[in-house]
Amino acid sequence: MFKMATSYLFRAVTFNTKQAYRIFAKEICCNQIVSTMTASTQGFSLIFSRTYTSFVKTVTADQLWLGVTSVSNAGRKRGRARSLKKRIDLNRGQRMGFGKTRMVFPGLTGPPLAGKKFLEIHKSKEQEEEPRPIERPRRKFLKVPPLLRGYSGRKFPGTSVGPPDPINDYEFTGFDSKVLEYKMVAHMTGNLGRKATISALVVTGNGAGLAGYAVAKAPTGKAALRKAKNKAAQRLQYFERYNDHTGKFKVLMTLKFSTVFHNFAVTEGKTTLFVQKKSKGHGVISHRVIKTMCEIIGIKDLYVKTEGRTGNIQNVTKAFFRGLMEQETHQQLADRMGLNVVEYRAEMENIPIPVATPSQGFSRPDALKEEAFDFDNLYYKDGRIPLKKYVDPNMKFKLPSTLKHFQLENRYRNQREARLLRIVHGLEPTLEELKIRQKPLK
């Protein structure tokens, strides 16, 4: 028996079988059982602790939020502060007294009196419910459509930053600018120590052969992007594209597409690009940075193989722009060789289509040997051409998986042609007849 200041009496009853303690608390004034607690652990005090605390009571809400919204200084330097959660108001969108159980609390969610009678807490009816939409926390950032997103997540590379700012009265109508590289750089200063700045590489163009790129640095990201965009607008270059304008052979050029004039290879530092001309419908298959530049320039069909330092975005950009500037047009080739330039297309039954003629009006009298002229490998420097490995066209028929496939499909051979013949001669059953055949016999 233990007496406490709160006028509670405790009595412990010990059970030999379960070795458990059952503690009863009785209120002396009203002689009613208040609470019952069962403990199964041996050797602890039988005195009821009124100062019992749990983890939920000891940790405040601010401390809980601090665990998910903070990062150490070492982690902040390593970039772990980017993925921190934002503190949100969990009570937003909730109304005091309104819940899923549809209870009415007089004076809080309903009138306290009905005439002269005090109302009690009761469950609401359907007509007492107020049709109110659920308030949800709004997005801090608007959802970006998939086609307008960048290369990865919500990062800047690959996104559009709009046309350059107008210069005096001239506005860059039809232009668009895209970010190719966005990174933080730092340098040491004598008074400020390590000073960080933002470096941005932006390409701008009108999609019709006019484009330029520039690198700019600024203390903030927005300033660096704006500075690079306007700087690129002052360094525009025009690139000739094959079949962009057909010239005097417009009647014969029926297919409209845009690509380079010839295959070429270009090297910038440790980065090498092998650019191949492709026909209409091929699309741009290349490094994602080169694909972005092709959209800005207006090239639609191209294949580019990138070798070496593919992660050096500035070298990739410089190499691609320099390769486009150094390419030779068909008219320049005709003037240099003194020959007519014709094109063979499979969709035109390989009929020679004139593309360019010499400007002097006549061609050279002597013929050119085919061994000395290979248009596909004409513009590779130092005599080095890409290696094209021989692929056996019958290789797939020699695989064990192909032989197994033929064995499984052998029973279905010629069935498609036989079904077409049955349909022609009226021997193929209709859908109604097939349904009748599938029914079980009585």
TrEMBL record:
S5 DRBM domain mapped to chain residues: 175-239
Protein name according to UniProt: Small ribosomal subunit protein uS5m
Species of provenance: Lymnaea stagnalis
Gene3D superfamilies on file: 3.30.160.20, 3.30.230.10
Entry GO MF terms: RNA binding; structural constituent of ribosome
Record-stated family: Belongs to the universal ribosomal protein uS5 family.
InterPro entries in alphabetical order: Ribosomal_Su5_D2-typ_SF (IPR020568), Ribosomal_uS5 (IPR000851), Ribosomal_uS5_C (IPR005324), Ribosomal_uS5_N (IPR013810), Ribosomal_uS5m_N (IPR048584), Ribsml_uS5_D2-typ_fold_subgr (IPR014721)
Database matches in Pfam families: Ribosomal_S5, Ribosomal_S5_C, Ribosomal_uS5m_N
Subcellular location: Mitochondrion
PROSITE patterns: S5_DSRBD (PS50881)
Ion transport found in the keyword field: no
GO biological process, one term: translation
GO cellular component assignments: mitochondrial inner membrane; mitochondrial small ribosomal subunit
Keywords of this entry: Mitochondrion, Ribonucleoprotein, Ribosomal protein
Keyword match Transit peptide: no
